[in-house]
Design a protein that fits this description.
The complex is a heterotetramer, with two copies of chain A and two copies of chain B. Chain A starts with 35 loop residues before the first helix and ends with a helix. The radius of gyration of chain A is 21 Å and the shape is globular. In chain A, strand 2, helix 6 and strand 3 form a beta-alpha-beta unit. Chain A has two domains: 304 residues, 3-Layer(aba) Sandwich (Rossmann fold), CATH 3.40.50.970; 31 residues, no CATH class. By secondary structure, chain A is an alpha/beta fold. In chain A, helix 1 crosses helix 3 and helix 2 runs parallel beside helix 3. Chain A has a five-stranded parallel beta sheet with strand order 1-2-3-7-6, with helices on both faces. Chain B folds into two domains: 179 residues, Rossmann fold (3-Layer(aba) Sandwich); 127 residues, Rossmann fold (3-Layer(aba) Sandwich). In chain B, 36% of the residues lie in helices and 18% in strands. Chain B is built from twelve helices and twelve strands. Chain B has a seven-stranded mixed beta sheet, with helices on both faces. In chain B, strands 7-9-8-11-12 form a five-stranded mixed beta sheet, with helices on both faces. In chain B, helix 1 runs parallel beside helix 7 and helix 3 packs parallel to helix 4. Chain B starts with 7 loop residues before the first helix and ends with a helix. The chains are: A alpha/beta, B alpha/beta. Chains in contact: A-B, A-C, A-D, B-C, B-D, C-D. The interface between A and B is large, with 49 and 48 residues. The complex binds thiamine diphosphate (2 copies) and magnesium ion (MG) (2 copies). One magnesium ion binds next to strand 4 of chain D.
């Protein structure tokens, strides 16, 4: 049995942490303590993320969204993270590839509204697609700048300490982000203050075209935690159970006031960096194919099948249901209509100063708005 | 507030103290703000009174200071973060422009970052290129921020309160040359504030309007005195808020005098002085009897050996005013 | 240089190639500048031709990119560093202002930092708040830098050569909206340069001077066309260099037309447009028949849904010109 | 015998590295291979640094300089660094507390001219005291901003690689500097590029008033090197031989193309942070006194005395000579005169653009200059 009273997983282990073995069976040193419906739930989350990318690609092709940084290949990490958090309680400070995780913590409606720059976007269609945020779901609105979410994430965690709240903050980022100065300033601060935060790296080995070896001279991201005096864990990011259990351990440890941790999840980006990228310029199809053999969804399907929790029919039905749900959410986002012109000026400050009032008037005069 | 006259830096210290006493959400953070009480003693005594959870000595990283303040503010706290010198704000500049300034906008108003970011600015203290800078233009140019700079203890109290109680981020610039140069009895009322966006006419005049803010108010006052002796009546406006700035007060004065001299010690190119001059030209052209003149710091890095020569001098202000009057 | 017409981004790529071929001290560094050839393909093919020691894929850290370039330049190399989008320059801002801009000054001329810092700027590409910014004012305000922005392939070649061969740091802003919008045969001569500090009169006119730079030159040209159809003759100036800017060319034009409309997509407050307007007001008042007008981006973060509405439109330019003419 | 062909000192050792033991004797695992005159030279360097602070304090009191960040307590580190470098060949990218090291690598004349804002300052009196720089001595002019010298130092080291030069770059900084983002970006870059650079931390346990424990959650700075895949060494910074030998090893290693290293030298700041600081507010006199018992100069005096290389008389004579030299250098700096007004404008750019020509004219008109 995994107990979260001690550090069941060892920090800085030589081998990366896996809980599903090469023949797709549980290989944890403790008993699996998730019930069947939870396990099916994990599978559904994984699938929803993959199918979300598909839906978004369709929206791209039909001009209903304009940009996508696909999350396919990151699903086990994002599901593991999301399922380890207390939904609508713990806080996520995500980055631009976390649409899957955002759907898990908020809803497809919220995320698709953002992707479609819909009038129903809680963020008022202020940013390009892939930048969700939700006060209700405790998701800090994404900014495109790499690592910029991380110091605020630590600040939020410090706030939780001061407020005697038991909310924990999780912040996600890519391997490239670890090179930025503010990743460092934030890691260091969190450790000094023992802030209740977990740093979760979706390490896909590339920052656009730049390979990890050109990004850092260390073999892993996990070992960077040593510079801050916090534990670092290297996890098989294609193993949803490993991601989940490690995240759960460090989140609950943070909740107990024992300080931050870094989790380095080895994932892979199946698609190009984004819909503006051509990855064939800088990586071989072989490499992509090799990683796809370790696909987290296929693996977990076999894991569940071996436990007789799923079969092809059930899988198909599940996929159809999710596709339907995503299509419906996308429909609703489209039906809500587009953002009004005035939104250009709202929320610069709580109250518009004179110069913005003037500028709004100028623009409305020009475009014949209200 | 003490009933005797206090300096500008003491005014800040007392205001922080009062607001911390009043509102448990107020958090002070920065380098050396704890036991040291700030290198200019702006936070003196706060650690002893409010403890290390609310008065936080931060690691030496401005990105972390600004960023943590933004994160705290997003969760309902009211952080007052200190940058030790404005010259050291740049490592935190990404957090200012990307997070602090844009959080409300990009989240559609779901989140906000009402951080008060204090920093000592300006030269004349022999600090050379990294203890003398006046970077206000960078903040005024950045949408989503409000930027203020008091020149008196009273305004320091009033503007700091407005910043700390308002809904949005405020860059609170402290003219370090004035920290201890003037003493004043500040208003005792706890509800006294100076609204952001309102200038103050410091002297009423008819012939020329001198517009300035911060430490240059010293030289402007001296220039106005000299002009008075020479029979020229200068109206003196202390902007106090640099964005939003008080267009009405300035334009009204120009309507009367027809002449403007804008004085600021920051380098002149693409500066706050440029903004005011351009706005005056745009809106008051027919009332102008002379070109709106800028008297600013030189467009050089801040020097050391010529520290005092860098600053807009009384002579330079007088020459500009004379030019405008003789035009 | 190819003899057929090429786009602005190809002009940059070929110039980098030529200069690298000519001068072994030229080093290209940035994120994804290697195998990827830059996200806009500005460095395409350079890695293959000059190898990984001269074409350096850097870790994701703008501070390291700018700082390393400064260090290289201080040792006699000629680095051309790329910031992937101008919106991401802020983590490198301390290195720009503290090192790149001030190294020559603070060392008394012993060291210098002739870095060319390239970055794509501007909106209209659906990039929202972090792929659309125009931060030129921040550089123009910072003493020690030169800042340029070409609007044609030819100027891109000429200005990039001047930057790469000159003695001092240059912020080389690339209007990404124009990267592929115009093709032009660029001068073949290897010695062709465009001097920093010289504007170009794009169209001769008598009634009003339209002053702009970068991508807005598109809308300005369209506005001038429309005005011509309406019988109004606009002089069009492309500043090209934002600091030092070409005062002589601008003032000469104002002397003739008496009217100025300054067009730039950056937010207007304390902007380059403010600087030009203030300078015109200061120096050309008696020749002005109307207020110098600014048509700029709004003082909001760059929006997404209203991307195209944010930019100075032809209508907005025409309205400002009409105001000036009817004044 | 210490040979520099291998890593004689082990990285990340538990104990910090000392070569002089508690009874002031050599305790190296190899034979001391410095000849007597070199050892005396080390002592002279140590003394010169201490006496420089004294001279500067006198200059402060008499208004001939305006600021001082004293280096007393850092002398062993600075001497060890300077003596391990090839003078006028290797490059120093220092910080504001390195006046001692700067004198060692350039001259008292150069450094005092800077402190006195003299016309003879190679840097043209452009900065406050304590910001020397010398192209001739290969010292990159100091900027006050913490950690700002570090990315350029790495860039310079990368230039040396590209230029096939065997010059090595050394950059120095305090413990506080390690929290800055650009310390991180530079460390990471140097390791990725295997740049010939050594990162030397003068770790005095304080950043102004902020103690190391509030600066970082690690016990040492040395272990931070792990995050970059470079070796880190923890050294007794009050032991000039330890500082020297470790620095020598890592500098020569870098020269051989084996990459960067971090050296963490535990020193202590005897005085206040600077002449504007009052350290009694934040630290106890006891602590200062305890560190002074380990004074690097006293210790090395006893080390030399035990070897009969020095006695009280020789010591006194040496001190007098150095004092005389420093006084004379200070005299010369004063006699050179002060900076002319025009210097305000020179060197903003190589050639002054029109606006600076105008501004210079304006100022000269005002002050009646040339
Ligand atoms: C500060 C900053 N610099 C550059 C960029 C451009 N950029 C966008 S994504 C990216 C790569 C990020 O890689 P990584 O952190 O590994 O995340 P991944 O996309 O692989 O998930 C870069 C360089 C940016 N968004 N922000
Ligand atoms: C970027 C920046 N932030 C703040 C400061 C103000 N400051 C000057 S020295 C100092 C402490 C530095 O401590 P450390 O790096 O340990 O060096 P030490 O002075 O102890 O040798 C601070 C905060 C600065 N110079 N630069
Ligand atoms: Mg990645
Ligand atoms: Mg220190």
């Amino acid at each position: 049995m995994a107990t979260w009273q001690d550090d069941s997983f060892e920090a800085f282990s030589e081998q990366s942490i896996s809980l599903i073995d090469a023949s797709d069976r549980w290989c944890g040193a403790f008993d699996l303590d998730l019930d069947d419906s939870t396990l099916i739930g994990f599978y559904e989350d994984l699938l929803r993320m993959r199918l979300l990318d598909e839906r978004l690609n369709t929206l791209l092709r039909t001009g209903k969204t304009s940009f996508l940084a696909p999350c396919s290949g990151h699903e086990a990490a994002q599901t593991g993270i999301g399922r380890a958090m207390r939904r609508h309680h713990d806080w996520l400070f995500p980055y631009y590839r976390d649409q899957g995780l955002a759907v898990l913590l908020s809803s497809a409606d919220e995320v698709l509204a953002q992707f479609q720059a819909s009038c129903s976007d809680r963020n008022k269609a202020r940013q390009m697609p892939g930048h969700p945020g939700s006060d209700q779901a405790h998701i800090f609105t994404v900014a495109s700048s790499i690592a910029a979410q991380i110091p605020p994430a630590v600040g939020a965690a410090m706030a939780k300490q001061i407020q005697r709240s038991d909310e924990v903050v999780v912040t996600t980022f890519g391997d490239g982000a670890t090179s930025e100065g503010d990743w460092h300033t934030a890691m260091n601060l969190a450790a000094v203050r023992k802030a209740p935060i977990v740093f979760a790296c979706e390490n896909n080995g590339y920052a656009i075209s730049v390979r990890l070896a050109a990004q850092t001279a260390t073999a892993t991201i996990a070992e960077k935690a040593r510079a801050y005096g916090m534990p670092g864990y290297r996890v098989d990011g294609m193993d949803v159970l490993a991601c989940h259990y490690v995240m759960k351990q460090v989140i609950e440890r943070a909740r107990r006031g024992e300080g931050p941790a870094l989790v380095d999840m080895a994932v892979y980006r199946y698609g190009p960096h984004s819909s503006s990228d051509d990855d064939s310029v800088y990586r071989e199809a072989d490499e992509v194919a090799a990683w796809k053999k370790r696909d987290p969804i296929d693996r977990f399907y076999r894991f569940l099948a071996a436990r007789e929790l799923i079969d092809e029919g059930a899988d198909k039905a599940l996929r159809d249901r999710i596709k339907g749900e995503l299509a419906a959410a996308s429909e609703r986002a489209g039906a809500a209509g587009t953002a009004p012109v005035e939104w250009l000026f709202d929320d610069v400050l709580a109250e518009l100063p004179w110069h913005l009032v003037d500028q709004r008037e100028l623009l409305l005069g020009e475009v014949g708005g209200s | 507030m003490p009933s005797e006259p206090i300096t500008l830096i003491k005014a800040i210290m007392h205001t922080l103290d009062q607001e911390m006493a009043r509102n448990p959400n107020v958090i002070v953070l920065g380098e050396d703000v704890g036991r040291r009480g700030g290198v200019f003693l702006g936070t003196q005594g706060l650690l002893e009174r409010y403890g290390p959870e609310r008065v936080i000595d931060m690691p030496l990283a401005e990105g972390a200071i600004v960023g943590a303040a933004v994160g705290m503010a997003s969760q309902g706290l009211r952080p007052v973060a200190e940058i030790q010198f404005a010259d050291y704000v740049y490592p935190g500049f990404d957090q200012i422009t990307t997070q602090m300034a844009k959080l409300r906008y990009r989240s559609g108003g779901q989140f906000s970052a009402p951080v008060t970011l204090r920093m000592p600015t300006g030269g004349g203290v022999g600090g050379g290129q990294h203890h003398s800078q006046s970077p206000e233009a960078l903040f005024v140019h950045t949408a989503g921020l409000q930027t203020v700079m008091p020149s008196t203890p009273t305004d320091a109290v009033g503007l700091l309160r407005s910043a700390m109680r308002g809904a949005d981020p405020v860059i609170f610039l402290e003219p370090k040359r004035l920290y201890r140069s003037v003493k004043e009895v500040v208003p005792a009322e706890f509800d006294f504030t100076v609204p952001i966006g309102k200038a103050m006419v410091r002297r009423i005049g008819a012939d020329v309007t001198l517009i300035s803010y911060g430490a240059c108010m010293l030289e402007v006052a001296r220039a106005a005195d000299e002009m008075a002796r020479a029979g020229v009546s200068a109206e003196v406006i202390d902007l106090r808020s640099l964005l939003p700035w008080d267009r009405d007060t300035v334009f009204e004065s120009i309507t009367k005098t027809g002449r403007a001299v804008i004085v600021a010690e920051a380098p002149g190119k693409a500066s706050v002085a440029s903004e005011i001059a351009a706005s005056i030209a745009e809106s008051c052209l027919d009332r102008l009897r002379a070109p709106p003149m800028r008297v600013t710091g030189f467009d050089t890095p801040y020097p050391y050996a010529q520290d005092k020569l860098y600053l807009p001098s009384v002579t330079r202000i007088l020459n500009a005013a004379k030019y405008a009057i003789d035009y």
